[in-house]
Amino acid sequence: MISVKEAKKIIGQNIPERKTRILPLKEAFGHTTAEDIYSKYDIPNFSQSSMDGYAIRFEDKDLKLKISGEMQAGSTKQFHLEKRNACRIFTGAPLPIGADTVVMQEKVLIENGYLTVNDNELEKGLHVRNAGSDAKKDNVAIRSGSYLSAAAIGYLAGIGCTEVKVFTAPSVSLILTGNELVRPGENLGFGQVFESNSYQLESVLKQCGITTIKSFWVKDDPSEVGKMLHLAISKTDIVILVGGVSVGDYDFVIDATKQCGVEQKFHKIRQKPGKPFYFGTKGEKLIFGLPGNPSSALTCFYLYIAPLLSKMIKRPAITERTNATSTSSYGKKPGLTHFLKATYENGKVTPLHAQESYRLQSFAEANCLMILPENSEGCKKDDEIEIILLK
């Protein structure tokens, strides 16, 4: 068995070359930019008003100004503002040539076609959006490696962008093994359990930004496991086998990986839950073996696969490490790193009941994992410990 730290290092050393593709802007949400994006224009490409009011020359603010002309949003004709004049203007409209300031319509007095400014706090340039203030022509608008949020998509549309080069999310196959599994909704017979791993793993894969997910079920048959693994490796970038990774008489995953020419990087980690976790590669394909117990499978995913996916597609991580104060004591024997389902609030963390690897009810309540180091004997109340927040 290897340590948690060693396992993370080995996985990190086997990240394949990142792939990219061009997407229409409307399809790029949730992806990450794979190159710097430059603006082709000054945005806005003209100085414009940010208020309904009157455009003036600031030097004329203390004079009685003649109202001459009007500028609406969408005006395409330029207007030259003479000295001692003001121009009626509306939000988004181009600023007249010669004007440099906009006075809010509530801050003026108008009599017989003349305007008097009534704003002691007026400053030069107030309520004016200068040309190029949001983006400058030929300058970087968004850096490579930026996450394309809704606001980022809107910003790129606002500078005239129609497509973007992004990092491509890998395709993933889930292979679920086990004679005891039945689908939710079917009758549950003696010796059977409802299959839940595909539901939770498909959900968290989608949270990680994975859109191409194929799920397969196979019985505990070495030939069937091998055939399915061979097919999955040929069709997708990452294969996650669930169940059958231990050393029982009906655990055939490890033999199947050998038959398919997978190079084993490690098998078994000094941790609880999830000790029989497996990782191997075949070319640039990544193969993981998760324990069948749902809590163990999900814990291993959060610890190893989720961070890997974040690095591969440069997407914000769905986990975050921080420190917290334990509200209670929890004892363990040295030898394994323990990851406890827990709740975190206001800097304090509380381990939950039902830490067994098959128990998902407590995991459904958890918003973090407490980390009890390999050589520790656990923690005491008020100890500061490291936790992994689950987003």
List the helices and strands and how they pair.
Blueprint: H1 4-12, E1 20-24, E2 37-38, E3 48-49, E4 53-56, E5 65-71, E6 85-89, E7 101-104, E8 108-111, E9 114-117, E10 128-129, E11 140-142, H2 150-158, E12 163-167, E13 172-177, E14 181-182, E15 193-194, H3 197-207, E16 213-218, H4 222-235, E17 238-242, H5 253-259, E18 263-267, E19 271-272, E20 278-282, E21 285-290, H6 294-313, E22 319-326, E23 330-331, E24 337-345, E25 348-351, H7 361-365, E26 368-372, E27 378-379, E28 384-390
Parallel strand pairs: 5-6, 13-16, 13-17, 14-15, 17-21, 19-24, 22-25
Antiparallel strand pairs: 1-12, 2-11, 3-10, 4-6, 4-7, 5-9, 8-9, 18-20, 20-21, 22-28, 23-27, 24-25, 24-26, 26-28
Could you characterize the architecture of this molecule?
- Keywords: Magnesium, Metal-binding, Molybdenum, Molybdenum cofactor biosynthesis, Transferase.
- Its EC number is 2.10.1.1.
- Its cofactor is Mg(2+).
- It comes from Chryseobacterium salviniae.
- The chain is of the alpha/beta class.
- It contains seven helices and 28 strands.
- Strands 7-4-6-5-9-8 form a six-stranded mixed β-sheet, with no helix packed on it. Strands 16-13-17-21-20-18 form a six-stranded mixed β-sheet, sandwiched between helices.
- Helix 3 runs parallel beside helix 6 and helix 4 (222-235) crosses helix 5.
- The mean pLDDT is 95.
